[in-house]
Amino acid sequence: MRTEAAERIELVFSLFDANGDGVLDSGDFDLMTGRVLEAAGASDDGAREAVRAAFRRYWTTLATELDANGDGVITVDEFRPFVLDPERFGPTIAEFAEALAALGDPDGDGLIERPLFVSLMTAIGFAEPNIHALFDAFGPDAGDRITVATWATGIRDYYAPDMAGIPGDRLVTVRAV
Predict the structure, then answer these.
(1) Contact between 167 and 134 (Cβ < 8 Å)
(2) Model's pTM, two decimal places?
(3) 74 by DSSP, 3-state: which?
(4) What is the rounded CA–CA span in Å between residue 177 and residue 172?
């Protein structure tokens, strides 16, 4: 596993630990889902339900694959190797990537405007300077928009253990405000 991938996963774990108790549980995913849906007020019911389902699947997959003792929580040590295993987690990430990217396109034109992208990524918990650096790395058009497909690919790449130098690495690097 590349160092960059390990750093990305550490950040994801810390963000998904929405209540800050050091472990992941279903409540963390409920909190995260609520924050993301609040930021996506203009999205239609179908897109909102797809994100709800993607977050549920994310948690259910983690709990099914990792919670061998049935205590209802996932530690960072349990999380690390699993999330970077495309065979075990790839379909879950693909669903999540498609749902989140589509949520950023409430008008259905295939484009995501920077303000909504920033709102959604802030709701997840990423630092705003890093969010802007990521958006810029995606190569926005003259209207300051990226495609839904670009963002979905960027999310999938973020979880790839063999990827480095990808736009998603900008979410890990500390940026000055």
Answers:
(1) yes
(2) 0.90
(3) strand
(4) 14
